Every structure is written in C-alpha cells, then in structure tokens.
Give the backbone structure.
Amino acid sequence: MASLGVSTATLVQRRPLGSAVATADFALACVLLLVGPLVLVPEERLGTWIGFQPAYALSIVITASGVRSLALWAGGLLGVIACYVIYLGDRVYEAMASTTAGNILTYVVYALVCRMFFGYTRRIARDADASRALAAELARREEERRAQVVLHNGVALMRLLTEPTTGALRARLIDQAEVELRRMRSYLNGRPGPDDATGGRVTLGPLVERVCYRFADLRVDTLLDLGAETELPPDQAEALERALESLLLNIRTHSRAREVVLHADRDEAGAWTLTLRDDGVGFDPSSAPLGVGLRQVVVGELRRLGLHVEIESVVGEGTTVMISSPRQKQDRSRLRGVA
Amino acid sequence: MKPTAAIVDDVPLIREAFELLMTRLDVVASVSTVEELVRGRHDVDVVVLDLHLANGGQPDVRQGVAAIRVLREHNYQVCVYSQEERRFVLAACLAAGASGIVPKALPTERAEQLIVEVAAGGTVIPQPVVGILEVLVRRGCITVLSERQRQILHGRARGLSYAQVAKRLFLSESTLRGYWLDLVRSLSDSLRDLTPGEIERTLGLTPGDLLDVWPRGAADGKDWWLHQDRTRPRGTGSA
C-alpha cells in the first residue's frame, strides 16, 4: 500500500515527493526489517517469498536515491544495511554469509548507480534550463539587433533632416526617408519589408545603381561592368542594399571624401566582390570601435548571411570596404594582395 | 617655379577665371582655338583644353579628339578640362593622346592639383575610364599588360591611391607612378588600335552604340566632332 501510495503521488505531481517522504520511506523499510524477526522464523528470512522485507528495502533504496540530501541518502542506506543485518540475526555468520554479503553489496551498488542516474538526469535538466535561458537571451539580442538594423539608417536620416540643406539634397533625403519609413513601419507591424516581397532574384548592378541614385550628392563613380549581372538571393540583396546605404551615409556624414568609387567584380567561378573606397579622413580601427551602422548593419548582417566583409581604414587616407561572396581561399588571398 | 600652362576654351570668362583661380599655374597663353595656340608656338608644360570649342563665332575650328591630336602632333601635353562626363567620350580622348582628363565639376583646388600633376608629366585618368580599361584587359581585348601592370590596374580601378597600391605591391610610390604612366600610355596605344565594334562586343554594348562617340580613324576625327557639335542645341558651347 505504501509503495502504491508513493508511486501514485509521484506520478500525479510529476516529481519526487521530497526529503520528508524519502525519510518516511527509509524509516518504514527499517521498521519492517526490524520487525521481521518477530514474525518470521530464521529459515524464512532469506531466499523465500514470505520474507519480503529485504526486497522491499531494496526498492526503497532505489527509489529514494533521488533525494537531494546526500546525508539523508547515505544515512538511509546505512540504516537499511544495519537493519538488514539485524533482520538476519545469527544467519549472517552461518552458511549463508556469502549470500548475505552479496545482498548488502547489491544495496550499495544499486544505491550508487541510481544516485548517479538521478544526478545525471538533474544535470541534463539544469543544462536544459540554462539552454532555454540562453535561447531567450539570444532572442532578445536578435530582436535588439533587428531594431538597430532597421532603425539605424532612419535615425541618421532624421539627424540629416534637422540640418540646413539645399533644396535638391533635402528632396533626396525626404525620398530616402520615405523608404526608411516603410521599412520601420513593416518592422513595427511584424511584417517583412516591401523589398522582401519580390521573391525573385535581383542583380548586383541595378541594386548598386539604385542605392547610389539616393546619394547623388556624393558623385560616386560606379564601375560595375565586371559584376553587374551577378544574381543575388533576396535576403543577401536586401542586406547588401542596407549595408551600402549605411556605408554611403557614413561617407556623407563623416568622411569628407572628395572621391568615392564603387567597384563590382566577378570571377569565372561566379564569386563576386564589391569594393567601396573613399579618400576621406578615415579612422583608426584599432582605437575607434565601429559604430552601430558598421558593426550591425554592415559587418554583422552581411556575415550572418555568409558574406565576407573587410574594412580597412587609415587616418587621413580614407576607407576601403570589401564585401564578397564566399570563394576559394586562394582567390581571397589574391584579392587582398592586389587590391 | 610654377609649371607653365596654356588654356584653350571658347568662353572668355572661363579663360579669365582660370588665370585668376589657378594660382599654382603660370598661364602663359589664353586662346579660344587650338589653331591659334599652335600658331603662337607657345612653350608650355601643359595645355588645358576644353573639349567643345566650336560655336557660332568659330564654327569650323578643331575640337574634341581632333584638337587633342593636333596638339599631340606638336608635342604638347594635353589635359582635357571639360564638363563632358560620358565615359566613352573620355576614353576616346585618352585614346587620342590626352595625358589627363579633369572634370570642370571638381572644386577648383582639386582641379588645379590634378592639372599640376599632368604638367609635371603625370597622368590623370577619370575613374570611369579606368573601369573601361580594366574590363577590356580582363576580357582579353587588350593583352599587352604584364602581371604586375594588371595588379596595378586592378588596384587603381578600385579607387586605391598610388600610395595604397604601392604599399600592397611592396613598391615605392614614385616607382608605382612610373609604372602607372607606362601603363596608361600602353593602354592608350592599345585603345587607339581598337575598333568601336571590338569595344562594343567586349563591353556587352549594342552594335553601333559607340559609332557616334568613337572616332573611326585619324582622318575623320575633326568631322566626327563637327557632327557632334551640329547636333547639340545652341548655347552649349561652353562645355
């Protein structure tokens, strides 16, 4: 009845019943072992169906091994063994001594194995909890990153719109603001942006020209013949467009560049490289950490999609950004060595 | 000592402004036609040339590629200074022998710096023309370059400065400038030998796209530019 009661309660609660119940279990097993000699003749205490107390005690040792307290578990086990020895009485020293020793060893081994099993299960559960917490934290950071990516260009545009600008530049800024507005709105509505809905592939040349059109004031020299026909998956195209916008905004806002060159290239294997070079003031990458625009919108977002990004900048000598699709290692080395 | 220069432009106001604003140049001649400059036999380090010289007052003068060729025949270093931005027209100027092409849209200080560079024997090639040259080399239309020259062109086409390309190729900047000068001359010669059809095929253009902008030979350069001028609306002679 006790076994059924404990099992039922455990199943209903879907967890062990705790130290109090484990203590009661151990106590019951010990009491049964101690009372056994009063109701059983010596011949019936070992190796018979009538002497059930040792087997019942073993089941308690197994099930109570899940108790958290090491002292309770060890104390309970030693108590059961001691009571078992008392239960057998003089037979311990008779011909059944080896069987008795084997049974005591069984208590110990089962207790250890079950203890290890429960410990291992608990460790898995702890790891699962930690993984869930990590996943929640990563989700929070991903959302934060998405917000930064979506809102960054909009913030930069708003800042530019607050400054006195000429009519033509202001008109272009307003056009760009409309694009950013649509992007922010779709983000807030939880829908993909309008550019996502195309579903088809876009080519590098028109994409670059479209972005440069919004930055006509920079007079970007676009050299796209070698890579203009390169097809891009929609997600890469969208990320690349945002990255270019962010880079050109940086150039417009910070670089004081006289010349800006945007060059596209594609090799025989289909791997492409986009190089954006300005001759502006540059910066020292070792002392000046990348801003949100470069870190999140350019480097983070593009690398997340498997594209390579390299930013080289020297104070007074301008900045070069190379964005490329995955390619053979030796090809990248060749490019770095020359360009 | 300032480098000496001659300015050839059909608009008197631009010539006067040039003399006043380009203070790092010693402008020793200011004329409206190349014929007048050649007649004067001026000894200058560079001729700063507007591409469009024909107007109502001087309808039959040489201009464009024809003007560049005449000046080159008289051993002048030519720096085109124009508002023309069509890359194939600028490439045609390079093919005709111009050492530099400077847009009038540049700030005066920058334009002056580039013209001084040409006067010192350097070359100034607009980035779009460098791009055309790179495509022609990469697609096998121009095959005269060494591997080192290809590397230099590769870097310059991406907008890298002389110093940056020199650093990447472990060269001194002066050595690289020398290489670049030889490279541009070599490419100009090769460009001159190409037909419009070859360039169109290489660049993926529609056949005939270049017929209106590319001279078909040394003899017809003048006629080509005269034709261009007749198709332009009146009052655009100051380009």
Q: What stands out?
A: The first strand of chain B starts at residue 4 and ends at 8.
